[in-house]
Amino acid sequence: MVDPYLHDISRITAVELRNALASGELSAREATAHFLSAIESRNRQLGAFVTVTVEQALKDATAADRLHARLIREQRQDELALLHGVPTAFKDLTDVAGVPTTHGSAALEHKPAPEDGALAATLKAQGVISLGKTQVPEFGLTAYSENRVAPPSRNPHALGRSSGGSSGGSAAAVAAGLVPFAPGTDGGGSIRIPAGACGLVGLKPGRGVVPSGASAGDAAKLVVAGPLARTAADAALLMDALVPRNAAPDRGYLANVGRAPEPLRIGLSLDSPWAGVYPFEIEPEAMDALELGTKLLEKAGHNITEAEIRYDNRYPEAFTTAWTAGVGSARIAPQREALLTPLTRTFRRRAQQRSALKVNEALSFLRQFEHDTVTQYARWDVILMPTLAQTPRPVGWFTGGGHSGEPWPSEWAGDADEDYKRQCQYAPWSSMVNVCGLPAISIPVHTTTSGLPLGIQLIGRFGSELLLLQLAAALETR
């Protein structure tokens, strides 16, 4: 008999859903149909999904149920994949066979992908059912998920606000219960920013931990894949699926996530490598989240002291050069260039005008920046800061109000530099973690009086993904 609790599948955790599917208490088709119904009901308001693959998802779920029945009949249930029958979705930068990958760009032809990309292939091999593709900014460039392909991705906690970027559609889908969890990718904050905006646990693993997260055109090795989830345990389960078994902690992430870590030396820092070029103010609500997170960590037995981190003021130019280099080489027909967003068009033009020597100089600087910054961080076990300097921004705020419907001054609408400046001031503590290749996690700790979530970010040492998930789990039980 099916547990009545399972009838509201969106309420249960991904771990509970996985267990119900593995035991046969719930079928893959039932779970898939439930989430497809939720998407049908809510996506028009949220804009989380760009493409919903209803027929393929139901077909895959039916095949999963047949496999489950056969393995049970043959007493081989131990051969079930880790995430057998669990629905999820992939951001629209990830190739999924037979589904167009728009990259959030109206300037590209949207042809179905001939095969799964590495990330989709990895998780499908672990048994997931893909429900479709989620909203992203054009080429994943921005901290908000708005483009010229589909409606903007909105924050489930306040529909007038952005869900962040570039994994904004995935974060909105998870926070709204349209999928139990989802993989994101993070090259400059693209998991942690939407996690902070949507009240989720968002883990950016260290460089190389998740092999399927790497990007071929990423010369600076910034991009990694990681989980967006409602709980630390759910994130740990997805990490077990993403990380090769021989590289995972003993017995895996989920098996160990509930263990409380030993007392840690935590350095609290508000220093940012962007402050010299784009001075920013931290909103009181973000400081409230930091104060609460600090108290919770101290209550858990950790020692928190102020950490003064010195960053080289050449960082903004070097990072921007590396971050935008790929868009300069993207294959776009000349007659379609006008379909690019103002920000993409501007950064594409600058990238094409930049010499290979300049790019190599930027990459060389970033490697030195990594060494210097990791050396400073090493004085502490973990570095603590807010995830975001501001509450989730209104839809259209970065671009001049293009989607929000609110009146905005038009003098800078479409100004790429103002757009970029606002992003760096919104999320000033994200990108340097990618440059350093370190793991980091956004943990939801605070809700404002208007119902907006805010989180804290913890940056760990190389190989500390499990520790960061354990800290997130400990704060959930506060």
Characterize the structure shown.
With 478 residues, the chain is of the alpha+beta class. Helix content is 38%, strand content 14%. The protein contains 15 helices and 13 strands. A hairpin with a 5-residue loop joins strand 12 and strand 13. Helix 2 packs antiparallel against helix 3 and helix 7 runs antiparallel to helix 15. The longest helix has 22 residues. About 2% of the residues have low confidence.
Q: Could you list some keywords that capture this structure?
A:
eight-stranded mixed sheet, three-stranded mixed sheet, 478 residues, 15 helices, alpha+beta
Determine the number of helices (DSSP H or I, runs of at least 4 residues). Answer: 15
Strand content: 5-15%
Question: Strand sequence of the main sheet, in spatial order?
Answer: 6-8-7-12-13-11-9-10
Largest sheet: 8 strands, mixed
Round the Cα radius of gyration to an integer and report it: 21 Å
Structural category is alpha+beta
Shape: globular
Runs in which pLDDT lies below 50 for 5 or more consecutive residues are 403-412
Order of helices and strands: HHEHEHEEEHEHEEHHEHEHHHEHHEEH
Instruction: Specify the helix fraction band.
Output: 25-40%
Report the span from N to C terminus: 34 Å
Task: Give the topology.
Elements: H1 14-23, H2 28-46, E1 49-52, H3 54-73, E2 87-91, H4 118-125, E3 129-134, E4 154-155, E5 158-162, H5 168-175, E6 181-186, H6 192-198, E7 201-204, E8 224-229, H7 232-242, H8 253-256, E9 265-268, H9 284-299, E10 303-306, H10 315-329, H11 342-353, H12 356-377, E11 382-386, H13 416-426, H14 431-436, E12 440-447, E13 453-460, H15 465-476
Parallel strand pairs: 2-3, 9-10, 9-11
Antiparallel strand pairs: 1-3, 4-5, 6-8, 7-8, 7-12, 11-13, 12-13
